[in-house]
Amino acid sequence: MRGIIGYGAYVPYYRLDRANIAAVMGAGGGRGSRAVASFDEDTTTMGVEAARNCLRSIEVTPDAVMFATANPAYLDKTNATAIHAALDLPQSAWAVDMGGSAKSGEAAMRLASASPGTNLAIFSDLRTGNPTSGDEANGGDGAAAFLIGDSDTAPVIAEMLGGAQATAEFLDRYRQPGDSFSRLWEERFGEQAYLPLAQDAVERALKAANLSMDDIDKVVVAGLHARAARGLARIAGDKLVDDLTGVIGNSGAAQASTLIASVLDTAAPGETIMVIHLADGANAGIFRTTDAIADYTPFAPVQAQIDAGSDSLDYNKYLTWRGFLDREPPRRPDPDRPGAPPASRSEDWKFAFVGSKDRSSGAIHLPPMRVSMVGGAVDDMERIRMADVPATIATFTVDRLAFSLSPPTVAVVIDYDGGGRFQAEMTDVDPDEVKIGDRVEMTFRRLFTAEGIHNYFWKARPLSS
Amino acid sequence: MASHGIKDQVAIVGMGCTPFGEHWDKGVDEMLIDAAHEAYESAGVAQDDIDAFWLGTMGSGISGLTLSKPLQLDYKPVSRLENMCATGSEAFRNACYAVASGAYDTVMAIGVEKLKDSGYSGLTGSAPPSDGTDSSLTAPATFSLLAPAYAHKNGLDEDQMKEVLTRIAWKNHKNGALNPRAQFKKEVAKETIAGSPLVAGPLGIFDCSGVSDGSAAAIIVRAEDAHKYTDKPLYVKALSFSSGPATGALDSSYDYTTFREVRASAEEAYKQAGISDPRGQIAMAEVHDCFTPTELVLMEDLGFAEEGTAWKEALNGTFDLDGDLPVNPDGGLKSFGHPIGASGLRMLFECWLQLRGEAPPERQIETTKTYGLTHNLGGQPGACVSFVSVVGSELG
Question: From the list A400, A411, A447, which residue is nearest B199 (CB)?
C-alpha cells in the first residue's frame, strides 16, 4: 500500500487580531485573527518547521523533498535545497521547488505520491495584501509537510482512494513577481466559474473512488476564493471541516495541506475524507484513514499550535515586518552578507545545527571544532545534531542598540540537556519575560537579508509543552 | 610554563597623552604627532633618539606607515599591533621586551584610535567574510550578560544590581570631573545614571564607556639607563597577557561572573612582580571598565575583593579615589573615554603621574604603596584577551 505515512503542520506563533487593522486604519480587518510569520520567517523557514514537525512524529529519512509555495524566498536559486540542508538529508535525496501559484501544492502532493520512494511534500505560504485589503486580513502564513511512502517503510495512516481535476483558464487572482499584493477580479465572476468546475471534479472523483457522497465522512474545502469556498461549504453541509480561517487565516498554497493535517490530528481509523481545492480550476481528492492512524501521534497538532500562539501583535509592528512601513534603523552598519564559501564549508552547522562531540572527553562543541576544548584532542570528533535538543537559559540580555528587523534583540546563553552550550538569539518571546532557568528549543529562521542573500540560521524560542 | 618576567629590567622615562574626546578637528596623524612629541618632551629626547616604535591601533590604520608617515621617521622599525581593546597594552608589552632583549636602547610604544569618524553609535568592527552565523550582539550587550549572572549567583535582585552598577559609573564620572584630559568632565548624579535609556540588559547610556578619539605614548629604556632621562622613572615589574580559548559560549562550566583570562593574567603578573597581597600592596589600579558590570567582576578577578563581595565593596567606597584601593582614579574608560589603541597606554599614563607624585593635587593619591596596576581587556565575557601590568616607582 502507498499513502501518507506521516505529516506535520506549522502555525507561526504570532497572530494579528483583525480588529487592530480597523482600529488604526479606520477600514479593513474584520473579526477573528490571522497567523503572521515573524520578521525572521519566510516560506523556506516555515517549510523547515513543518517538515521537522513531520519527521519528529515519524523517524524516516525521505528520499526527496518537493517544496511548493506561491511566495518563494529566491527565484533562480532552489529553495528546497536549504530545507534539504536544514533537515540534514543525504546527498542522494532530491530537492526541488514547484512554485509560483496557490495550485502548486497539488503538484507537490501528486509528485510525492507518484515518484517511487519516500517523499516529503512541503507546502508553505506567506500571504500579504495592501493595508485594509481583504487579503491582508484574511491571508494566513504557515506550512505543512506530508511524508508519502510505502507500507514496508512505515504504516500508511491514510491512503488515496481516487481524485479528479477540472481545469479552466479564467482571470480570478493574479500577481506580478515582486509585488506584495495580489490583484483580484471582481469576486462574483470567480464564484460562477469555480462552482461548476468543483461540481464536475467532485462527481468524477467519487466515480473514480467508486463512492457516493453518503460515504464521505468529512469535507475539506480550501481555496483563496472565499465566496466560492463558502458556496461549496453549503453543499458539504455538516460534513464540512472548520477551515480555521477565523483564527489563522487562509494560507494559500499551504491551506489544503494544513487543513488535512488538522483533520488527521483527530481522525479515527476508517474515516473517508474529501478535499476540494479551488485554484484556477478544482481538484477533488478522496482518502481514507487506516487503522494505523490510531498509533500515530503528531508531534505538534495544529490546534495545540493555535492554542500556544499569541495575538499580542500590534498592527504597526506587523506592517514593519512585512515591509509596508520602514522603521528608522539605529546608527549601526548594515549587516554583512554571508560569504558563500564559508557558508558552504559550515553547511552542516549553519543549516542543520550539527556540532561536534569529542570522543575522548564527550565535550560537545557548538559550533563544531577540530580541537577539543576539554583535553585538547585533535580531530577526534563525531557529528552531533542538536536541532531537536531542548536547553535551559544560563544568562541573557536584551540588546537595544543592535541592528534588527524587529528590535530589540534578545540574546540567550543556553545549556542543552545532556551537554553543550550555545549563545543564540531568541525569538517568539516577549523581551520582558526572559529569565534564567527558562526552557527553550531551536527553530530555523532567516536572520536578515543582505545584498540579496538570505542569511539562514537557528534561533532559540520558548519550549512548547 | 617558562615565563620569566622582566621585573626591573626596563623603565618608562617619558609619557604623553592627548585629551580624549570627540576631536572633529584632529585626525589620526595629528593625534599621533601630539602624543609622540609630548612624550619626547617628557623624556627630554628628540625623535631621532628613538630606535624603534610599536604602534597600537585596531581600526585606524594598518602597517607601520600609519606612524612613520605623519612623524616622518627616518627609516626606523615600526610594528603595528592589534589585540582588540588591549591593543595599547600590547604595543607597550612588545616594546618593553625589545628593550629587555638588548636589541634597542630607546623605544616608543604609542597607541591611537579615531573612532568618531565612523558616524556609528558604539564600536563597530570589520570582519573577514563569514558564514553568517556569528553573533550580532553589540559590545554593551555582550558585557551585559555578566549582570544577571552575577546577580543570580550573589543573591541580588534587579534593583540592587542596578544600584551597584550606578555606583560604579558615578565614581568614575566623579573622578573624570577632576581630569582635564577626560572626555566627560562633569559629575553625573546617580538618579541620572540610573534613569538613562537602556542600551542592553540593565545597562543605560552611563553604564557604557565613551566612544572617543585619542592617543598616548611611552618612552622605554633599560632600567640602568633611566637616570639619564629622569629622576623618577617608572619601573616595569610585570607584563602578562592571556588569550583565552574563547569557549565561554560553548562551555557550560563558564558562569558569566568572571573572566578566566583575567585571572590567568593577574596570577602571572603577580608572580612576576612578587605580589602576594594585591589589596595591600597596590596603590592604585587602572582597569578595563568598558561597562560597569565589567569593573565589578574585575575587582574579584584581580583579587581586589573576595569572591562575591565586590558589589558590597563598591557600594562602600573601597575603590573610590579616597578609598582603600583607588580604581580608575583618572576616570577610567567610562569618563576618560576609550579610543581603543590608546587606552592601555592611557592607563599607564595615570600610573606615571600618580606614582611619581605628579598628578594634579585634586586627584593625587597619598600613599606609601609603590605599585600601580593596569588591566586591559579585549573581546567579550567568555572569549577575551587580558593584559595586566604592574609598574612601580622604586626598584625591588
Answer: A400
The one catalytic residue among B17, B23, B85, B375: B85
The verdict on residue B121 lying in a domain is no
Q: Which residues pair with A381 in a beta bridge?
A: A358
**What is the SS3 assignment for A148?**
strand
What pLDDT digit, counting tens, does each position of A442-452 carry?
Answer: 999 999 999 99
pLDDT digits (tens, 9 = 90+) for B87-98: 999 999 999 999
Is residue A396 within 8 angstroms of chain B, CB to CB? yes
- Residue among A361, A397, A403 with most chain B CBs within 10 A, to mutate: A397
Domain that holds residue B324: 139-207+236-392
B85: annotated active-site residue:
yes
Domain membership flag for residue B194: yes
Phi-psi region of A418 (alpha: psi -120 to 50; beta: other; left: phi over 0): left
The CATH number fitting domain A340-462, selected from 2.40.50.840, 2.40.10.270, 3.40.50.920, 1.10.510.10? 2.40.50.840
Domain count across chain B: 2
Quote the CATH superfamily of domain A2-321: Thiolase/Chalcone synthase (3.40.47.10)
Q: List pLDDT tens digits, range B260-298.
A: 999 999 999 999 999 999 999 999 999 999 999 999 999
Active site residue B152: no
CA distances from A222 to A62, A192, A206, A231 (A): 27, 16, 18, 12
User: Testing the interface with A: which of B121, B123, B124, B133 to mutate, by most A Cβ within 10 A?
Assistant: B133
Considering the domain boundaries, does residue B301 fall inside one?
yes
- The tens digit of pLDDT for each residue in B318-352 reads 999 999 999 999 999 999 999 999 999 999 999 99
CATH of the domain at B222: 3.40.47.10
Q: Cell numbers of A270, please?
A: 476508517
> Contact B53/B67 with Cβ under 8 angstroms?
yes
Do B121 and A399 lie within an 8 Å CB cutoff? Answer: no
Chains A, B: CB pairs < 8 Å: 132
Instruction: Give yes or no for A459 touching B (CB within 8 A).
Output: no
Sign of CA dihedral A347, A349, A352, A358: positive
pTM for the model stands at: 0.95
d(CA A245, CA A334): 38
Per-residue exposure over B119-135, b if at least 16 CB sit within 10 Å of its own CB, e if not: eeebbbeeeeebbbbeb
Contact status, residue B83 vs residue B366, Cβ threshold 8 Å: no
Domain boundaries, chain A: 2-321, 340-462
Cβ distance A401 to B129 less than 8 Å, yes or no, reads no
B23, B173, B338, B375: which one is catalytic?
A: B338
Q: Is residue B25 domain-shared with residue B106, that is, in the same domain?
A: yes
- The residue of B116, B121, B131, B150 whose CB has the most chain A CBs within 10 angstroms, and thus the best one to mutate to test that interface, is B131
State how far the Cα of B20 lies from the Cα of B28, in Å rounded to an integer. 12
Interface TM-score (ipTM) > 0.95: no
